[in-house]
Amino acid sequence: MAKHHFQTEVNRLLDILIYSLYSHREIFLRELVSNASDALDKLKILTLTDDAYKGLDFAPRIDISFDKDKALLTVSDTGIGMNDEDLVEHLGTIAKSGTREFLSRLSGDEKKDSELIGQFGVGFYSAFMVADRVEVISKKAGEEQAWRWVSDGKGEYEIDKAKREGHGTSIVLHLKEDAKEFASEWRIREIVKRYSNHIAFPIYLSYEDDKGNKKEEQVNSAQALWRRSKSELEHKDYVEFYKNISGDDEEPLFYLHIKAEGTMEYSSLLFVPRRAPFDMFSADYRPGIRLYVKRVFITEDDKELLPQYLRFLRGIIDSEDLPLNVSREMLQEHRILANIRNATVKRFLQECQRVAKEEPEKYLEFIRQYNKPLKEGLYSDFAHKDLLVDLVRFKSTSAAGYTSLAEYVERINNKEQKAIYYISGGDEAVLRNAPVLEAYKKKNVEVLIMDDEIDELIVPLIGKYKDYELKAVNTSKAEDEFINDEEKKKKAEEGKTVAEKIKKILGDEVKDVIASVRLEDSPACIVLDEFTPSLKMQELLKAMGQDALSDIKPILEINTEHPVIKRIEQADDELAKDMAHILLDQAILLAGQKPKDSVGFAKRLAKIMEKI
Ligand SMILES: Nc1ncnc2c1ncn2[C@@H]1O[C@H](COP(=O)(O)OP(=O)(O)OP(=O)(O)O)[C@@H](O)[C@H]1O
């Protein structure tokens, strides 16, 4: 008998599962059934594609049995099975980074943590929530020797030779005193119905009826839900299926069931989780789409099944036209799959459009979770640009919450307005209080608040929306279209002397100082050349090592009507120097950035305060 120690992380996981999480214990059965189903899938594809397995006697099924008196519960499958090496590798260590992530995200709140189990699929180990001893008897398909793995979940496990009729795996749970309720026909029926009804293989339950007769009955519907016609299916069927494949305890926000017939024959079933998956913004996120070919499971970790920006979707794609033995490497280049992918994306984005129109509240929830990935789509999925442009949302000075570009255009009530105005390059609060907005506010012109980092990247890609160009208000070029040239000239003329005075003082620190036609209450603001990235973007680019950017200098726009500017105009050289520097620094601060020389800024401020 060979003794082994669990990897440290397994021990931690087991401790948590055994001692902390009680509220959702019943999901252990879902996890074991799902593993059994995976094992059947793996063998099924081998029997269809690999000559070595073609002659194998394969009757795929999952069996659940229990013994009330001995407090035993067994889940068996006729799947691929495991040999001794597999047992060590799969049931003694944690190979998936997801599980490590799970451990690091535990909050101590039992309900939340137990929901995480589903999301991360810590799978097999959840058996220890209800059992104080677990035996795994397994025989790998194509091998002679069977093996037995046994553990009480306390640091060690043993592996030994064993006997088993056919290939597959049996998991025997020695139920804890307080978990004996699970050795019950009705409890098992109920849990299987709730979580595993649509597992594609039959699940049989063995039990004794009232008269003590042994019975065996299939307890799940075992149909590929996505192949059934939409009219046959109810909302609850979809919800159950979603919970099953995603491990999410909440209902999906919405879903889409596509059944395409004709030149391309496929079914897709896509679910939008109510809350964004925890790893949505991590590079090694777990993809949520399973690929089937003629109802045979092929893969679930291919990141190319849908474009990356739709990585939050959960669901399946089942093709009738792909060959069963399609290799993973080939998948990405497969024309049929590319067509399915394209059609599916289009249908999904159209569905989003429908939700936006018909169920605005739901769409708002969707946007709260997925606005950013959709914006990524604008950046990466040119083919669906037109749909995506209408789906993304922005904050605005004129509407609470989020607004679409279409809504903005509808609100334009001034014939002279030729552009959609926006301000970008900082936090929402900074942008909303930006001095350049003053004139727009006064004239009732709406400005979009683009506070997502990605906004700056996508605006140039949108370019124009319905003949309206997107224009940043914090660039020197975005002079207000509502102020005529005469007025501009007059202002520039009036402000010339003081602008030159300030420019002389600031020298190299600014590109230019100009009299503003847009400022109302503030003395000055920073603007940039039309094609210069915002200060915020510059900061980001610099952090990424783009040094050339350090030469970009801001343009200082001054409000010549403002008392501060008038004071500078009249001040002696020394006072004017301090005031001009402070003027620039406070404009930089208002743009959400730090002054270049914060010590100098503080000293000058103190010096001036002394004089008051
Ligand atoms: N019934 C089984 N038959 C064959 N292999 C199994 C069985 N149960 C578990 N395994 C093996 O043990 C591994 C670990 O299982 P576990 O449930 O912990 O995670 P997982 O199934 O890989 O992940 P997830 O639960 O997220 O799908 C599986 O990947 C599989 O290789």
CATH architectural designation of the largest domain: 2-Layer Sandwich
Structural class: alpha+beta
CATH class assignment of the largest domain: Alpha Beta
What does the overall shape look like?
Answer: elongated
Distance from N terminus to C terminus (CA atoms, Å) equals 88 Å
What's the CATH H-level homologous superfamily of the largest domain?
A: Histidine kinase-like ATPase, C-terminal domain
The overall number of domains is 4
Mean pLDDT: 88
- The number of strands is 22
- Strand order, sheet with most strands: 1-6-5-4-7-3-2-8-9
Main β-sheet description: 9 strands, mixed
Q: Strand share of the residues?
A: 15-25%
List cofactors, ions and other ligands: adenosine-5'-triphosphate
Flag low-confidence runs: none
Describe the structure.
By secondary structure, this protein is an alpha+beta fold. It folds into 4 domains: 2-218, Heat Shock Protein 90 (2-Layer Sandwich); 225-372, Ribosomal Protein S5, domain 2 (2-Layer Sandwich), CATH 3.30.230.80; 392-472, Rossmann fold; 485-611, Four Helix Bundle (Hemerythrin (Met), subunit A) (Up-down Bundle), CATH 1.20.120.790. Helix content is 40%, strand content 19%. It is built from 21 helices and 22 strands. Strands 1-6-5-4-7-3-2-8-9 form a 9-stranded mixed sheet, covered by helices on one side. Strand 5 and strand 6 form a beta hairpin. Helix 10 packs parallel to helix 12 (385-391). The longest helix is centred in the middle third of the chain and has 24 residues, at 335-358. It is elongated and about 105 Å long. It starts with a strand and ends with a helix. The mean pLDDT is 88. Residues 31, 35-36, 38-39, 77, 79-82, 90-91, 121, 123-125, 169 line the site of adenosine-5'-triphosphate (ATP). Residues 1-328 are annotated as: A. It comes from Rarispira pelagica. It is found in: Cytoplasm. InterPro entries: HATPase_C_sf (IPR036890), HATPase_dom (IPR003594), Heat_shock_protein_90_CS (IPR019805), HSP90_C (IPR037196), Hsp90_fam (IPR001404), Hsp90_N (IPR020575), Ribosomal_Su5_D2-typ_SF (IPR020568). Its main location: cytoplasm.
